[in-house]
Amino acid sequence: MHGELQALEDALRNLNAQYDAFLYGSSPKAPIEFRRRIGQQIRRLGTTEAESAAERFRFSTIQVRFNALCERWDRLQAEKEAGRRPGIYGHFTRVETSGLERPLPRPNAGAAISVEEKNLSPGPSPDRDLFERYRQAKIARGEDISGLDFERFLERLAREREKLKQHFGAAEIEFDIAERGDKVRLIARPKESKV
């Protein structure tokens, strides 16, 4: 099963790249057939018994990622079909603070319900939301996102949280996105406790 999982991860990365090419204009056609084949492969692997807990976890991660990507592709494709630039319009307004940074507000749209209604994936993840906002902000600024990967992003957040918890002496650290100079950056602050 290990080889199949690796092939599935590679195919999912390739599919995401094909969707980005379609959504942002360099490909005229959505890779619907490729998406359907990957969905079938995931369903088929879901019926086979994994050899180890690590393989079960890896497969579960792939399933969740596929479902989240499907939701994202459907949302961005709907934006494109409505004549708007996918993921870009209306999310960024300039708010002056110290003159050095301009916070980027969160999108005001609610989460898409297509996947949640089917109970195919767990509820929305704040880290997934942060990743998508960070990614979209970089795209809007014309920054290269070819090396941006959700798993590595999560690892980076975990490392930074541990360092900052010790530095601030806080139980929880929260991250947000800001423009600093001509780059999109993550900013961190201690999470305020609700009393």
Residues in helices, as a percent range? 40-55%
Oligomer: single chain
State the helix count.
6
The N- to C-terminal Cα distance equals 49 Å
Main β-sheet, spatial strand arrangement: 1-2-3
> How can the largest sheet be summarized?
3 strands, antiparallel
Q: Mind sketching the topology for me?
A:
Layout: H1 2-23, H2 32-46, H3 53-81, E1 101-103, H4 114-117, H5 126-141, H6 150-168, E2 173-180, E3 183-190
Antiparallel strand pairs: 1-2, 2-3
Helix pairs in contact: 1-2, 1-3, 2-3
What's this, in brief?
With 195 residues, this protein is mainly alpha-helical. 54% of the residues lie in helices and 10% in strands.
3D structure, described in words:
The structure is a single chain. By secondary structure, this protein is mainly alpha-helical. It folds into two domains: 1-89; 90-195, no CATH class. 54% of the residues lie in helices and 10% in strands. It has six helices and three strands. A three-stranded antiparallel beta sheet has the order 1-2-3. The longest helix is centred in the middle third of the chain and has 29 residues, at 53-81. The model is unreliable at 89-99 and 113-122 (pLDDT under 50).
Index terms:
6 helices, single chain, 2 domains, flat, 54% helix, 3-stranded antiparallel sheet, mainly alpha, 195 residues
